[in-house]
Amino acid sequence: MRDPATSHPAWRLSSDDSYERRKQSGLALKERATTKKPPMYKVLIHNDDFTTMEFVVEVLKRIFRRNEAEATRIMLHVHRTGIGVAGVYTREIAETKVRKVRNLAQSVESPLQCTTEEA
Fold first, then answer.
1. Second-level CATH architecture of 40-118
2. In this structure, what are the phi and psi dihedrals at residue 36, rounded to the nearest 5 degrees?
3. Where exactly are the structural domains of the chain?
4. Torsion-angle region of residue 82: left (phi > 0), alpha (psi -120 to 50) or beta?
5. What pLDDT is recorded for position 33?
6. Residue 86 to residue 101: CA distance in whole angstroms
């Protein structure tokens, strides 16, 4: 009678042979590299004396998808402190948002400034 602890099963898969060969040859399988999260950037809106509060709220709603209450809160913060965070995004998205704000401001001849800063 065969000892079940040392004997191989009666059935084998074709992949078993290749696994055994790799195991015996010492072939190391490459481990998956872990991906690093991309750096995040703050999109900042700057206060000026010419841009209307209504326009800033509209920019925050349209470009940054803020609701009326959030947009008003951010606009008031910008108005009181001189600068405020409109959102935090990856670099490419942050740069796109800044470009959209500048284009929209330029289209209505507003001096509204928007910049990015690493978060």
1. 2-Layer Sandwich (3.30)
2. -95, 140
3. 40-118
4. left
5. 82
6. 11
C-alpha to C-alpha distance for 119 and 116, rounded to whole angstroms: 9
- The one-letter amino acid at 100: K
pLDDT at 14: 62
SS (H, E, C) the chain: CCCCCCCCCCCCCHHHHHHHHHHHHCCCCCCCCCCCCCCEEEEEEECCCCCCHHHHHHHHHHCCCCCHHHHHHHHHHHHHHCEEEEEEEEHHHHHHHHHHHHHHHHHCCCCCEEEEEEC
pLDDT of residue 10: 65
- Amino acid, single-letter form, for residue 110: S
